[in-house]
Amino acid sequence: LSVASLEDPVVMSKIRQNLREKHARHIADLRAYYDSEIQSLKQQLESSHSTAASEELRKINQSLADRCDQLDAALSEASARIKALENKNNLLEKQVADWRERFCAISDNSKGLQERLEETRASHKEKDNTISRLKSRLRELEEALEKAYKVSDNKNTRLQEENKMFQNLLGEYESLGKEHERVKDTLNTTENKLLDANTEISDLKRTILKLEAQLKQVEHENALKLRH
């Protein structure tokens, strides 16, 4: 039986119905057979009463009794076998139900996995698109970087020239700094000399004032002498 057939409850119901009908027919056939055998033996027993001697009848009865015992044992064995088949049938029905539940669970799990697979494919496709955009952006950045390198080379040349000019200016600045220090020292010296000169001038002015005062006094004395 295929899995699809096991899933179909109508098919399973028909299978169980066929098995029950088959078991019923088998039991009915067995009962009919044993009943006919017992009836035949009874008829033989009845006929033997009228035609045979008592010793022979006893043997026949014993044989018939043994035969009945055998038939009863066979009937019991057949009944036990039918019971075992019915139990096995019930067990198979339970297994089929279990397998159906497991199949349903696996189907649901498979649907979930299929949905997850679709989501993963969509996510992978989105990531591929993102990677493509990033690659395009990377190419653009590489081109921009190459242009920047070219510009940087030109800038490096200009920077070297400017650095050279700056070194020259720095040398001139250092020379001017040294010259400024010399001028500063000279200026300090000159300022000191100027202070000394101012001090000397102040002293000379005081001397001149004293001399002028003395001169005025002498002139006044001379004028007095002249008037006298």
UniProtKB/TrEMBL annotation:
SUPFAM superfamilies: Tropomyosin (SSF57997). Residues 61-221 form a coiled coil. GO terms for cellular component: centriole. Keywords: Coiled coil. Gene3D superfamilies: 1.10.287.1490. It comes from the Eukaryota. PANTHER family: M-PHASE PHOSPHOPROTEIN 9. This is MPP9 phase. It comes from Regulus satrapa.
